[in-house]
From TrEMBL:
Catalytic activity, EC: 3.1.3.15
Catalytic reaction list: L-histidinol phosphate + H2O = L-histidinol + phosphate
Top EC category: hydrolase
Organism: Lachnospira multipara
Name listed for the protein in its UniProt record: Histidinol-phosphatase
The UniProt record lists the keyword S-adenosyl-L-methionine: no
NCBIfam families found in the cross-reference section: hisJ_fam
Biochemical pathway: Amino-acid biosynthesis; L-histidine biosynthesis; L-histidine from 5-phospho-alpha-D-ribose 1-diphosphate: step 8/9
Keywords: Amino-acid biosynthesis, Histidine biosynthesis, Hydrolase
Length: 269
């Protein structure tokens, strides 16, 4: 089984009210080996109802999580990470994040396209879907060339969750050249990718990214794969991990990764 969930959000993220202790309790009941908290930090995210969002109080977060980690040392494995929003315009702040190296793990993700959030249906109004998706993948290429302080790239085809018809008429091969360049760049930089099961929660046929993109990553020489539920509530801890286990095994992966002190550890599949 995949026994470590490496992507979890708690009340320290603007879009979650989950209690970290509730995750720990359930993970232990499920027989998991450990979990990694990865609350959101997105610089310059658009205001929501006039309020600043996804501006992680890093000191408060770190103080709380490190105490929790110490409390459960020896009885349950807790890692502390961040999901960092990547954009060229904030690259210097991204690359100077956590200067004292307190974190175990940083997920690099793209949530915005030119400062706008494709989560909202209004974002897609008056836009051609394919062109909009291409612009998102172009932004990823720019983000990973300018932002370097992250370990794996999160939910690579995230935008498909929010496209008007999701993946009904989506074919990953239409964007092959973008995926090829993105994956080659990540591999060259020694970075991995995430298999994020929230895509399945959102009704997609695949996790994020499409399993064929994970296959391409392997064919290009990629070896670092983390698995995360991207859960914002305790109910989705370890969501569909059995399905991902089978997918990775069928693709020929021998290991999945968990990060500690910003270095990949390899767990047998």
């Amino acid at each position: 089984m995949i026994s470590f969930d490496s992507h979890l959000h708690t009340r320290f993220s603007s879009d979650s009210e989950a209690d970290p202790r509730a995750y720990i309790k359930l993970a232990k009941e499920k027989g998991m080996k450990g979990i990694c908290f990865t609350d959101h930090n997105d610089y310059d995210f658009p205001l929501e109802d006039g309020k600043v969002v996804f501006d992680l109080d890093f000191k408060a977060y770190l103080d709380y999580m490190l105490k929790l980690k110490e409390e459960f040392r020896g009885s349950f494995d807790i890692r502390v990470g961040v999901e960092q929003g990547l954009m060229k315009s904030v690259a210097s702040r991204v690359d100077s994040y956590d200067p004292e190296n307190k974190l175990d793990f940083i997920i690099g993700s793209s949530h915005l396209v030119e400062g706008e959030d494709p989560y909202y249906p209004s974002y897609w109004e008056g836009r051609a879907v394919k062109d909009t998706i291409i612009k998102y993948y172009e932004s990823i290429m720019e983000n990973i060339k300018t932002c370097h302080n992250f370990d794996i790239y999160g939910h690579l085809d995230y935008i498909i969750r929010y496209a008007p018809e999701k993946d009904i008429n989506y074919n990953w091969k239409d964007y092959y050249d973008y995926f090829y360049e993105i994956l080659k760049s990540l591999i060259y930089q020694g970075k991995g990718i995430e298999v994020n099961t929230a895509g399945l929660k959102y009704g997609l046929k695949n996790p994020n990214p499409d399993i064929n993109i994970v296959k391409l990553y392997k064919e290009l020489g990629g070896e670092i794969i983390t698995v995360g539920s991207d859960s914002h509530s305790v109910d989705y801890l370890g969501y569909e991990f059995d399905r991902v286990y089978n997918m990775l095994k069928e693709l020929g992966f021998k290991y999945y990764s968990v990060f500690k002190d910003r270095k990949a550890e390899f767990y047998e599949i």
